[in-house]
Every structure is written in structure tokens, then in C-alpha cells.
């Protein structure tokens, strides 16, 4: 089920709460003003809806997230579209302070913080006059604090000068901490706090949310998107791992594993839960709730959907046997990712092919590919995350069409597959008004299992750590999760499907890469493990040029708009 997002009221109220009363002239006593709003729990719920909605605003999961930021930095993607130089630079790890995509994400994250702060102020204002509603008020406050922590998590992880590694780096620059709406220009001139202060603030919000939400669960069809008590605990465990606070990480993660009642879904459910099906499953801890919206395009937080699918849309075989776009079709999986999943079945075009046409496909390749998928000699998650050219199909105007070699990729020897996650399985993205309804399962049990395994390796319990890594792998291969299987890793240095130096003998890293491929998790792992240089060496280049890695690339440049408008804002090193 989905949430209907209407936030125009929220925008008005944000302005009301950020103004001094002497600037507000209300002639109609029934109109909104600080003296009569909020007047009920329903009013607070309206504000809360806006805080949730900001997660899929244009700069976040409504459009820009994934294909215009994290997927570029960690090379999940390559670009078919070559007409935007700054987009190419992002994919080369050469981000620029004037990049509009970066600014969009920065702006929307701060908008999320501002809306959270507006709601939190309204909560305390209403609390004073509604002793009968304290329990409902606490539930709203707990959700608001989780969401503010969510926005700060992304601000800190993307723009903080570095992660805390081996107890070091906490004194580096983070982002400002703002808890009140500014009422003057002077109040907007804020300094950056340290990385440690940022993470401590996030933890503080989550700890308070944990108390307020306790073990709250939401079972109503229209409430499933809301933050539960177990989502808070899981998020806390993730944050503690990111800080390398292994003792607290173990406490929280083990609690979620043992007591949340969550379980990994079977593979047949898992493979489709990124395509508008099988949502809010038994392994879901927090999902960004979306819906097809025929009244508003995706990429706007007033829409119920997301236009990410327009950017990553597959390409298919047209009537002439060549490539046809199913939407904007701007990006495709980097060719080296196909190899990383263990695909070694050759290439779809016959040797010497110069024209990307279905007539030139090698039938031997088709047969070998289908056999590899059937026998699972390639990681099955490859076909969960990607469509294979000339083997897989998609629906276009009600007709099944083969997937093609990706649009505008003229190199006929390149493995130019298409993305599959977060796309409409029943038609093209353009057919659903550019507003895809596939939920984003942002925090799920597989993530917790692997974070728990990582935590256990730091307390010497490698045996249990390996078991939780294997649970995730077993599900991917269709085996019972809790029973020893033929595909189990025998050690924490066993061979994986990957052949590169980063992942070939590291099951923990490989499983995090493969399990969450295309979900926007890998960039944060790259940053906290400090493997950016090794990843850049593996991928080497994108279609627009060579990757240009520097150790300052873990933190993105503060947008130039912020530098010029806030005299106290300092730029990250390297920009």
C-alpha cells in the first residue's frame, strides 16, 4: 500500500513557523497562524506527511539519487548519454562545486531537515495544550526524529570530510547542525560541525526516537510506510557500524536479528520486490513508499512516484531490429559489473559485428547464457539487478520485446546491459507518466545480517559471522536460509564470483556489493572502508574518459551556491 503525498499545506506552514509573529498579519481568524495551528493530531500528521515526502523530492529518491550521484561515484553505472559534461565528470570521480545535480541533493536534504525541525517545533507547541494526546504526539515526534537523522545521515556521509576509521577522523569537517528554523539572515550563517558531532547528533535523535517508538509496529494498510521501533534500532546499528563502534553495533544488530521477527523472503519474492511488487515484506525494516501517479510527474515531492526509472530505463529491440529507448534511457550498468557477478559466457554479438542489431546475435551465446542462469554458475542476483540483452524481455505498449544492446552505445564489444531494479515490469516508464511506483527498500534484513557479520569479525566470532554471510548467499541461490548448502563459503577469505583484487577473496565485501547492487549502498561502503582507489583501479574508465581518483573524493564538494550564501561555510579539501 502507498501513501498519498500532498505537501502544499506543509510548505505554507513551514513559512508560518519560521516567521516572527509581528510579521504575520492574519485578518481571517480561521486562517493558519502560529496561534491556532497546529490544533489537532491530524494537523501534526499533515506536517509529518511532508517530512516523509521530502525523501522523494527531486534531488533525492524522486529523481537524482542513484543515477546522478552515488551510482556514478562507485561506478555502478556508465553513461550512454554523453551530452552533459558535468554528469560525465561525476562518473570520473571529478565532482565540481557548481554541479546542479549535487546542489539538488544538498538542497533537498536540508529541506528535509527544515521540515523535520518545523514539525518538531509544532509538536512541542501542540503538546502544551493537548495533554490527552500525549501518546499520539510521541509517536509523531519519534518518526520526525528518525527522519531528521535520515537526512543528516546522508548529509554527513556525502559531504562530511571523512568517516571515522580506527578512531581517527572524528575531528574532520562535517556539516552544520541546525535544530531551529532561521528567522534572520544572520541565523543562516552557520559553521560546519565535526564529523563526530554529526554522528553523535544522529545517534541522539535516534536514541530519543527509540524511546518514543519502543517496539511500535504499523500494520494498517495505509500506515506500513511509517517508521517502526525496529527500524530505529536497525538504523542505530547501521550508524554504529559506520562509526566502528563495534560494541554498540553488536548490541543493536543482535537485538534486531533475534527479536524483530523479521526474516529473509524466498528468492522468488526477493527478485521482484524492487519492481512495485512484494512490498513491505518480512525482511523490510524501512521503505520509501512510492506509487504510480498519473496526476503528477515523478521528481517532485508533490508526486507519489519517482522519475529515477526514466533515467535508467532499459532499451529494447525496435521494429528495425536495432536499439530503441523505452524512456530517457541515459545510463546502463558499467560493463565491469557484469564480470563481477561471475558472467563469463562470451558476448552476444558474433565476432566482427559492427552494427548493433538482433540479426547479429550469436545463438550459441543465448543458449550458454540460459544454461548458466538455470545452473546458477553465475550469481543469480545479476538478473535481479539487470536485464540481459537479447535474452531478457520487457513489455512495451502491451507487447513483449527483447532487451537490446544499450541505446547510443556504439561499441558492439561492450557488455551494455540494462538496469532492472526500480522499474515498471508491465510497461515503459513513459507509459506511467514518468512517476514509477516501485518502493525503495532502504533498510532491510539482509543489510542487517551483513552488518552484523562485519561486527562479529571485530569481536573474534568469525564462525557466526560466516554463517550470516552464508544466509544471505543461500537465499540468492534459492536454498533454505538456515541450512548448510552447497554454495556456502568455507571461510571469510573463500573465493567469490568476482575475479578482481577487491572482491575475489572477500565474501563479506562481495555479498554487500552483489546483494545491494543498484540500491545505492555500495558508495557508503567504499567510503567507510577507504577502498576508493582500489575500485577506481578496477573500473579504470567510463565511456566519457578515464576515472580520476584522489583521496579527497570520498567527500563531495560543498555546492558553490552554499559557499557564496553562507560566509562561514568552508569548502572540502581538493575542490
UniProtKB/TrEMBL annotation:
Gene3D superfamilies: 1.25.40.390
SUPFAM superfamilies: TPR-like
Domain RagB/SusD span(s) in chain numbering: 283-575
One GO CC term, this protein: cell outer membrane
Main location per the UniProt record: membrane
Subcellular location: Cell outer membrane
InterPro entries: SusD-like_N, SusD_RagB_dom, TPR-like_helical_dom_sf
Residues of the SusD-like N-terminal domain: 23-240
Keyword set, alphabetical order: Cell outer membrane, Membrane, Signal
Family to which this protein belongs: Belongs to the SusD family.
Protein name: RagB/SusD family nutrient uptake outer membrane protein
Organism whose genome encodes this protein: Dyadobacter luticola
Amino acid at each position: 500500500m502507498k501513501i498519498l503525498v500532498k505537501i502544499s499545506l506543509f510548505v505554507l506552514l513551514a513559512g508560518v513557523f519560521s516567521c516572527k509573529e509581528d510579521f504575520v498579519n492574519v485578518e481571517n481568524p480561521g486562517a493558519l497562524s502560529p496561534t491556532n495551528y497546529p490544533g489537532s493530531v491530524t494537523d501534526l500528521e499533515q506536517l509529518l506527511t511532508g517530512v516523509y515526502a521530502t525523501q522523494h523530492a527531486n534531488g533525492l529518491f524522486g529523481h537524482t539519487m542513484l543515477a546522478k550521484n552515488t551510482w556514478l561515484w562507485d561506478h555502478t553505472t556508465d553513461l550512454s548519454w554523453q551530452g552533459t559534461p558535468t554528469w560525465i565528470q561525476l562518473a570520473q570521480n571529478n565532482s565540481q562545486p557548481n554541479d546542479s545535480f549535487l546542489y539538488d541533493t544538498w538542497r533537498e536534504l536540508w529541506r528535509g531537515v527544515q521540515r523535520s525541525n518545523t514539525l518538531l517545533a509544532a509538536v512541542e507547541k501542540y503538546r502544551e495544550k493537548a495533554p490527552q494526546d500525549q501518546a499520539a504526539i510521541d509517536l509523531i515526534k519519534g518518526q520526525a526524529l528518525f527522519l531528521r537523522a535520515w537526512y543528516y545521515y546522508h548529509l554527513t556521509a556525502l559531504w562530511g570530510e571523512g568517516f571515522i576509521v580506527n578512531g581517527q577522523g572524528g575531528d574532520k569537517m562535517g556539516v552544520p547542525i541546525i535544530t531551529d528554523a532561521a528567522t534572520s539572515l544572520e541565523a543562516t550563517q552557520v559553521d560546519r560541525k565535526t564529523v563526530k558531532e554529526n554522528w553523535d547528533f544522529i545517534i541522539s535523535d535516534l536514541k530519543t526516537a527509540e524511546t518514543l517508538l519502543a517496539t511500535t509496529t504499523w500494520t494498517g494498510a495505509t500506515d506500513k510506510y511509517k517508521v517502526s521501533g525496529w527500524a530505529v534500532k536497525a538504523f542505530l546499528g547501521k550508524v554504529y557500524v559506520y562509526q566502528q563502534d563495534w560494541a554498540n553495533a553488536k548490541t543493536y544488530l543482535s537485538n534486531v536479528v533475534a527479536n524483530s521477527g523479521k526474516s529473509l523472503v524466498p528468492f522468488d519474492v526477493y527478485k521482484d520486490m524492487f519492481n512495485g511488487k512484494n512490498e513491505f515484506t518480512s525482511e523490510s525494516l524501512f521503505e520509501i513508499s512510492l506509487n504510480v501517479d498519473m496526476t503528477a510527474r515523478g521528481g517532485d515531492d508533490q508526486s507519489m512516484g519517482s522519475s529515477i526509472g526514466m533515467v535508467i530505463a532499459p532499451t529494447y529491440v525496435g521494429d528495425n531490429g536495432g536499439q530503441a529507448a523505452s524512456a530517457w534511457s541515459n545510463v546502463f550498468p558499467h560493463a565491469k559489473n557484469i564480470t563481477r557477478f561471475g558472467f563469463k559466457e562470451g558476448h552476444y554479438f558474433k565476432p566482427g559485428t559492427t552494427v548493433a542489431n538482433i540479426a547479429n546475435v550469436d545463438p550459441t551465446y543465448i543458449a550458454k547464457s540460459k544454461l548458466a542462469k538455470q545452473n546458477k554458475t553465475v550469481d543469480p542476483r545479476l538478473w535481479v539487478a539487470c536485464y540481459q540483452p537479447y535474452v531478457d524481455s520487457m513489455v512495451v505498449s502491451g507487447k513483449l520485446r527483447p532487451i537490446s544492446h544499450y541505446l547510443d552505445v556504439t561499441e558492439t564489444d561492450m557488455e551494455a546491459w540494462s538496469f532492472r531494479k526500480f522499474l515498471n515490469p508491465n510497461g515503459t516508464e513513459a507509459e506511467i507518466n514518468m512517476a514509477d511506483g516501485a518502493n525503495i527498500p532502504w533498510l532491510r534484513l539482509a543489510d542487517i545480517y551483513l552488518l552484523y557479520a562485519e561486527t562479529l569479525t571485530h569481536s573474534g566470532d568469525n564462525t557466526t559471522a560466516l554463517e550470516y554471510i552464508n544466509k544471505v548467499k543461500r537465499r540468492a541461490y534459492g536454498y533454505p536460509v538456515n541450512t548448510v548448502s552447497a554454495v556456502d563459503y568455507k571461510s571469510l577469505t573463500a573465493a567469490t564470483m568476482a575475479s578482481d583484487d577487491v572482491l575475489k577473496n572477500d565474501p563479506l565485501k562481495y555479498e554487500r556489493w552483489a546483494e545491494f547492487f543498484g540500491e545505492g549502498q555500495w558508495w557508503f561502503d567504499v567510503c567507510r572502508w577507504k577502498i576508493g582507489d582500489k575500485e577506481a583501479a578496477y573500473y579504470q574508465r567510463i565511456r566519457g574518459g578515464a576515472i580520476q581518483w584522489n583521496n579527497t573524493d570520498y567527500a563531495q564538494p560543498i555546492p558553490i551556491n552554499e559557499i557564496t550564501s553562507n560566509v562561514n561555510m568552508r569548502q572540502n579539501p581538493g575542490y
